[in-house]
Design goal:
This protein is mainly beta. 12% of the residues lie in helices and 45% in strands. The chain has one helix spanning 2-9; strands at 11-13, 26-32, 41-47, 50-52, 55-58, 60-65. The chain is elongated, with a radius of gyration of 13 Å. It starts with a helix and ends with a strand.
Length: 66
């Protein structure tokens, strides 16, 4: 139900897992070395982030590889 309410308000989840790290949308709290992942790729999502249009409401908390 919460996602439905957010959708009506124009609030969207920030894509993170498998995406390239963007400091304007993501908050990196850990770093790992992983040969299977590319440079600055998000390896794990700890907390979902939300944005309303271009304004970030809460940054996504992530672990970044390489």
């Amino acid at each position: 139900q919460l996602k439905e309410v957010f959708s009506k308000l124009g609030i969207e989840e920030i894509p993170a897992l498998g995406e390239t790290f963007d400091p304007n949308k993501h908050n990196a709290v850990m770093h790992i070395e992983d040969e299977t992942l590319g440079e600055n790729v998000i390896a794990e999502l700890f907390q979902v982030g939300f944005a309303m249009g271009e304004k970030v409401i809460r940054f996504a908390m992530v672990k970044v590889a390489n």
